[in-house]
Design brief:
The chain is of the alpha/beta class. The chain has helices at residues 6-17, 34-37, 46-58, 107-115, 134-145, 166-174, and strands at 23-25, 62-64, 90-91, 104-106, 126-130, 150-155, 178-181, 183-191, 194-208, 214-218, 224-227, 230-233, 237-238.
Length: 246
């Protein structure tokens, strides 16, 4: 099994229970995937993740860390079957000017740094989180817990269209997160290569799209700049495509 996140661990558990000899290959130095490296400890304590992994190894599952797999097909010479369970580890880019400036990060990298013990200090910083999903809520709450003066969630639709579970968004708001809705980023404003603000464009909701939600449409001439020190992009995640190439 390639990957030790939720899917990989679950597959290993079920297969081992049926008597199969299972090996998990994990590119990081510790197993757990999204459970350990993205979900904040206040939502999922690390000892809980550790206990689940210990349950797996106790029934014979072998976990080999620091093993990066670039070609899953090559494993078929050593194993009877291969399961690719690498998850959605590629963050979607905003694709706006200035996105790569110092102070602009994606939510997965930000949460992984915090989960892995990086000493980030956001004391007094104004943080803008782009997106409306559960990762956005985590990023906003973690920012506040790291001392941010403000964590502002900007989202291109309305509150009822947010993909985040309502409990997560309510909890984020209760902790101090501010929601700025019906806006979309068009540029990261910088000075000397560092974030100083974000340009936002107001949106209005049109006809429903394929997801069933009303499509956000830009309002001409409505751009404005919101001053900030840090921008965390959480607008989507996708699998690593090279692992599934023919």
């Amino acid at each position: 099994i390639v990957g030790s996140g939720p899917a990989g661990l679950t597959a290993a558990w079920q297969l081992a229970r049926k008597g199969y000899a299972v090996t998990i290959l994990e590119k990081r130095s510790t197993p757990g995937g999204y459970l350990r490296h993205a979900i904040p400890a206040y939502r999922l304590p690390q000892d809980v993740v550790g206990a689940d992994i210990a349950n797996l190894t106790s029934i014979g599952v072998e976990i080999r860390c620091d093993v990066a797999v670039s070609d899953p097909e090559s494993l078929k010479s050593d194993y009877n079957a291969v399961i690719v369970a690498t998850g959605t580890q590629v963050a979607t880019r905003m694709d706006v000017p200035g996105e790569d400036a110092d102070g602009s990060v994606n939510g997965l990298d930000f949460l992984a740094e915090v989960a892995n013990g990086a000493e980030l200090d956001l004391t007094g910083k104004r943080v803008v989180v782009v997106g409306g999903g559960n990762v956005a809520m985590d990023a906003a709450r973690v920012s506040l817990r790291l001392g941010a003066a403000e964590a502002r969630v900007v989202y291109r639709r309305g509150r009822s269209e947010m993909p985040a579970h309502h409990v997560e968004s309510d909890d984020a708001e209760a902790e101090g997160a501010v929601f700025e809705l019906l806006v979309s980023p068009t540029e990261v404003i910088t000075a000397d290569g560092r974030v100083t603000g974000i340009k936002l464009q107001k949106m209005q909701l049109g006809a429903p799209d394929a997801s069933g939600r009303r499509s956000p449409e830009p309002v001409a001439g409505s751009d404005y700049v919101r001053d900030c020190d840090v921008i965390i992009s959480t607008i989507g995640m996708s699998p690593e495509p090279t692992l599934y190439a023919d």
